[in-house]
DNA sequence: TGCCAGGCCCTCTTTAGGGCCTT
């Protein structure tokens, strides 16, 4: 059964290119849609956390000061993920920090990313918006833990991914909504979603 | 010097502009 790793970063800002760093990472490992393991850690990147980020996430400078070094955490995270595809909400954001933090640790980042934001825009155009929390509420999915903490947000992305795969099976009659189909769906134009679903629908 | 994201997607578009989404 192929593994899937759902990831979420908390960071000091939005751009590693402008010096922003990760402060926390959480990864939920799925096998056949079931949670089989979890990884979560604060990390100390040696940079100060802006006060508005602390207000947003609850993560303080004191908390990361007592956390393991960022390179040490990323080495553990990389081993935990292995070569499993990574899933994130707005994956462009988490991919930037995954690549930047692994690069700083001297590690490769070969994993492909699947984006629940892109998938939701294609599958749920009727949603009020496509923020992670809004989509969780839109589908009536459970919220666990504190929002804007890495593990709680990763768990919400797990629930959303499960809803996406459920809807592909039941509403679009896709027998096997595997990584390849999800990658194809997030890449295809919105106008081509119907044709893609038709090609993968079981008869 | 001063400023600083960036990919996706829609539309009053396509020789562009602006909102969304992540922290």
What are the key terms here?
single chain, five-stranded mixed β-sheet, alpha/beta, 203 residues, Nucleotidyltransferase, domain 5, DNA-binding
Could you explain the architecture of this structure?
It is a single chain. The chain is an alpha/beta fold. It has one domain: Ribonuclease H-like superfamily/Ribonuclease H (Nucleotidyltransferase, domain 5, 2-Layer Sandwich). The protein has nine helices and five strands. It has a five-stranded mixed β-sheet with strand order 3-2-1-4-5, with helices on both faces. Helix 5 crosses helix 8 and helix 6 packs across helix 7. The protein is globular, with a radius of gyration of 17 Å. The chain starts with a strand and ends with a helix. The model has no long low-confidence stretch (mean pLDDT 94). It binds one DNA strand of 23 nucleotides through strand 1, helix 1, helix 4 and helix 5. DNA polymerase III is a complex, multichain enzyme responsible for most of the replicative synthesis in bacteria. The epsilon subunit contain the editing function and is a proofreading 3'-5' exonuclease. It is an enzyme of class 2 (transferase). It comes from Polaromonas naphthalenivorans (strain CJ2).
